[in-house]
Write a structure and sequence with these properties.
This protein is of the alpha+beta class and 348 residues long. It is built from 12 helices and 11 strands. Strands 7-8-6-9-10-11 form a 6-stranded mixed β-sheet, with helices on both faces. It has a 5-stranded antiparallel β-sheet with strand order 2-1-5-4-3, with helices on both faces. α1 packs antiparallel against α3. The radius of gyration is 31 Å and the shape is elongated.
């Protein structure tokens, strides 16, 4: 608002000091006034304005670049002012920005909003948003220049990331929620197909949880769920692994690049870890502490067949869990899917 007031004040002063501008202006006076107004706007606006030519060299950079980049205006000009090739853009985003610039100059993308990261002088990496427009020669219709209007959106991106992370967490246990699980399972199955690798899944259920709630109350039940979730998450820390609350007292663990035997071992680690917590379970007819039953399923990636994946993997793990619960609880059952064309076999 201060910058806007400063700009408005400058315009009022300009009108007062030049009667021709205050009255009916001449064409030359009008153009001069418009140019001065645009200059005042560019110099007092918080956004950074870049205009550069087909060679990538800057024709104009607004002074606000110093606040955004940490370099002085003269330093940026001394480096050629090339915002694509002179190391201003974060490495992972350079190709995306260069491609957009190329499309601008080819005339296929005259207007575009682009978000990417830049590197400041102090080493910080921040997110910026640019509105890009191509300037065309009125005679030939060919692109001559490109204009970037750039603004700092780093705090906005941080907030968006925090909100996204919050939306993917289970409110009670703090681990991933069902939405996050569903998305990760699809993604990991596509990766398994691409790598011709194995994908394993654990479905974990707290034994006789309703009886635990009835005996101890819902507050104690919530604490039990949090404790179990923490133990499960502590045993799912390899790259790509995801521990999630599947629903109610059920949890799931996605194990990428994990064969059947290693998946069984992972399930056993979780089962024994929760039993070792020795949380009293007065309503449990099988034992005296909280335990879990675990269904394990492994699928070897293969194209074709009639079993829909990864739904088939989820169904196999759920069936294995049912066998573990009906077989006495506090145990593991497993299912191995050799390929979508072959039948499922189970192993204890």
């Amino acid at each position: 608002m201060k910058r806007l007031g400063k700009f408005a004040g400058a315009l009022v002063q300009r009108l007062r000091s030049d009667p021709k501008e205050a009255g009916k202006p001449t064409e030359a006076g009008r153009q001069s006034f418009e140019q001065e107004s645009l200059k005042l706007l560019a110099e007092n606006c918080g956004d950074v304005i870049f205009r550069f030519g087909l060679d990538g060299q800057a024709r104009y950079i607004s002074p606000s670049v110093e606040r955004l980049y940490g370099y002085t205006l003269s330093e940026i000009y001394a480096m050629g002012g090339n915002v694509v090739e002179n190391g201003f853009i974060y490495d992972d985003d350079q190709e995306k920005v260069a491609s957009a610039v190329h499309e601008h100059f080819s005339g296929t993308l005259p207007h575009m909003k682009l978000e990417f990261r830049i590197k400041r002088r102090d080493g910080a990496v921040i997110w910026v948003e640019t509105n890009c427009s191509t300037i065309f020669d009125p005679q030939t219709g060919r692109p001559t220049d490109i204009v970037f209007t750039m603004r700092d959106i780093h705090e906005k991106k941080i907030l968006e990331a925090q909100l996204e992370a919050f939306a993917r967490k289970d409110g009670l246990t703090g681990i991933a929620n069902r939405r996050s699980f569903d998305e990760s399972l699809e993604k990991e199955w596509r990766r398994a197909l691409g790598e011709n690798n194995a994908l394993s899944l654990l479905i974990i259920d707290i034994d006789c949880f309703k009886a635990f709630n009835d005996a101890n109350g819902h507050q104690a039940g919530d604490d039990c769920l949090r404790t179990a979730a923490a133990a499960i998450a502590e045993n799912a820390t390899r790259e790509g692994e995801l521990a999630a609350r599947y629903g109610g007292e059920e949890f799931a663990v996605i194990l990428p690049r994990t064969d059947y035997n290693r998946a069984l071992a992972a399930g056993e680690r979780i089962r024994s870890a929760i039993e070792a917590l020795a949380v009293p379970h007065p309503g449990y007819e099988v034992g005296s502490v909280v335990t879990v039953s675990v269904g394990v399923a492994t699928a070897m990636a293969a194209s074709g067949g009639t079993i829909e994946m990864p739904h088939g993997l989820l169904q196999a793990a759920d069936t294995a869990l049912y066998k573990a619960k009906t077989g006495g609880r506090n145990r593991i059952e497993g299912a191995l899917l050799f390929s979508p064309r072959e039948a499922t076999r189970t192993a204890a």
